[in-house]
Design brief:
Blueprint (H helix, E strand, L loop, with lengths): L2 H11 L2 H4 L5 H6 L13 E2 L9 E8 L9 E9 L9 E6 L10 H6 L4 H6 E6 L16 H4 L10 H19 L8 H14 L5 E6 L1 H12 L4 E7 L9 H23 L2 H4 L5 H17 L2 E3 L2 E3 L1 H6 L7 H15 L11 H4 L13 H12 L8 H14 L4 H5 L24 E7 L5 H10 L4 E9 L13 H10 L7 E4 L26
Helix pairs in contact: 8-9, 10-12, 10-14, 12-14
Length: about 525
């Protein structure tokens, strides 16, 4: 079949967007078809200061897969070949999350972290998803203040919150309007299948973290016959995209906060926050109230009560939260700052200004995907105001932040519907029990949605990201075994993290593996 000849009919039927990348390697090279499926990567050394084995190339992919001969985007890819060609199974595509996270350097980072058995079997393939980094990056022209969406609800400031949300949507439309509707998870999944076809692979194996779990799940539903060994680590619940995923940060911060109060009370002699969980909670909320009345001078910054509440992620790490709250309390009581500390970063979710990427590319892609994947966002600002006021009471730590108005209220309607999760997907999902960004209930939702999947749960595991993030995690062995053999566990696995590992991990941005550094991402 000559796809060019039938493209208008297929596009009208809505079929071309999913059928074009399904061509296998042999078909793509032998049969006439879209030019993007016949291209060959021009591999070259990524940079002189990196190993020669770390290679890069740039592909061309359709902006709109319904128009395969129309405008294109660059897609930057990278690879490090299998360390034992005799054992090579195929390619392992990698994604760090986001949306908006760059994955081009993931092969270089994973190369030293993976076991030899895994490295022997795969060419590691990294890529910057469409719109990100080296892949035709988009921008909204946002200021630093406009990129911050941690906005607490107050009746007197809700009007300015609405103005901010509308401004972000308008600026994104103005700067990247022609491209914006096509920066979606479904199109990135199509790009993944294009990478598979261009590399000459019949199937694709994949390791995706956080947002990358949803991307992998979507691929498994669009291309089930191409889905090989998929590891989805720190899961996004497909039923919650995307407002519900932001709101789950609020609902699940509450049990994490309760766990922290217990932990701190058991160590009252060390931290002085209270001898019972209730006393610790009272200390915390008293501190928030004081900071609301008069900001606390803390390590050179004025810290408000809203800033303290916005640090909800730190309470998933009791050993991090306790000294932070104790230091805030000491500062509020007039004690001098401890020299050399930088606990202000923990109030930003572990990030710092120096760690933020230049420009607004990550934020622009975040809103493009979060707003463009689904039409489920409310269109009436009154609903956001009602929800934020209600959730500020129900989930006092973060509820109003999560439910407040977002730019998606003013976004253009999505080009296509979200992907239903109806097909069997024999994939492995991996989860920590205490994950701030994709909480356990979200990971369980992903596991339920993917029929035939198995879950490995690290009981007691803290933090966002499991496999390779913590060398002592009890989940690593099960993931290695699956990637090596391709066999899923016979049933779900719950393992207990070693006690020595619990409470000692640092928030994701400080660790070696490259989750997006901005707080409030997946």
């Amino acid at each position: 079949m000559r796809l060019k000849r039938f493209a208008p009919l297929l596009a009208a039927a809505g079929l071309l967007a999913t059928t074009v990348p399904l061509l296998g390697a042999t078909q793509a090279s032998a049969a006439p078809g879209p030019d993007f499926l016949r291209q060959k990567p021009a591999w070259h050394r990524c940079s002189a200061d990196q190993p020669a084995s770390y290679e890069c190339a740039t592909l061309k992919v359709p902006l709109d897969y319904r128009k395969p001969d129309g405008p294109t985007l660059d897609l930057a890819i990278s690879r490090m070949k299998s360390t034992d060609p005799a054992k090579r199974h195929g390619v392992l595509l990698l994604n760090p999350g986001g949306p908006g996270g760059s994955g081009l350097d993931l092969p270089l980072l994973m190369d030293g972290a993976m076991s030899k058995d895994v490295r022997d079997r795969y060419d590691l393939i990294g890529f910057d998803p469409r719109g990100v980094g080296a892949s035709s990056p988009i921008t909204c022209g946002l200021t630093d203040a406009e990129q911050d969406f941690d906005r607490p609800y107050r009746p007197e400031s809700f009007g300015s919150d609405v103005t901010w949300a509308r401004t972000v949507a308008d600026k994104c439309r103005e700067k990247s309007g022609a491209v914006l509707p096509h920066i979606t998870t479904r199109n990135t999944a199509r790009d993944m299948d294009t990478v598979r076809a261009v590399l000459g692979e019949k199937k694709l194996s994949y390791l995706g973290y956080s947002y990358g779990t949803y991307l992998g799940a979507v691929y498994s539903q669009m291309y089930p016959e191409r889905t090989d060994r998929f590891v989805l680590d720190s899961g996004v619940d497909p039923q919650r995209i995307w407002r519900g995923m932001i709101q789950v940060w609020a609902t699940e911060a509450e049990p994490a906060f309760a766990r922290w109060t217990q932990w701190a009370a058991e160590r009252s002699g060390e931290f002085g926050l209270g001898e019972t969980p209730k006393a610790v909670s009272d200390t915390f909320w008293g501190l928030v109230a004081r900071a609301d009345r008069e900001p606390i001078d803390f390590e050179g910054q004025k810290v408000t009560g809203d800033m303290i509440r916005a640090a909800r992620g730190v309470f998933f790490y009791p050993s991090q939260a306790s000294p932070l709250v104790a230091a805030l309390k000491a500062a509020a009581d007039g004690a001098p700052a401890t020299p050399g500390t930088d606990r202000v970063r923990l109030l930003r979710g572990g990030s710092s200004p120096a760690a933020e990427p230049a420009g607004d590319n990550g934020t622009a892609v975040f809103w493009a995907v979060v707003c463009g994947d689904t039409g489920a966002w409310p269109r009436y600002t009154e609903q956001y105001e009602r929800d934020a006021a209600k959730d500020k009471v129900r989930y006092p730590l973060y509820g109003d932040f999560a439910s407040n108005v977002k730019p998606c209220a003013f976004w253009d309607r999505p080009v296509e519907a979200a992907t239903p999760m109806r097909k069997a997907a024999g994939v492995l999902t991996v989860q920590n029990e205490w994950d701030s960004q994709t909480p356990l209930t979200s990971g369980q939702g992903l596991h339920r949605a993917l029929k035939g999947s198995r879950m490995v749960l690290a009981a007691g595991g803290e933090g966002h990201g499991v496999y390779l993030f913590d060398p002592s995690s009890c989940a690593n062995a099960a993931v290695d075994a699956y990637l090596v053999s391709g066999r899923l566990p016979a049933q779900d696995v719950t393992c207990q993290n070693p006690p020595a590992a619990a409470g000692k991990r640092t928030p994701a941005p400080e660790r070696r593996m490259p989750f997006p550094s901005a707080p409030g991402r997946f």
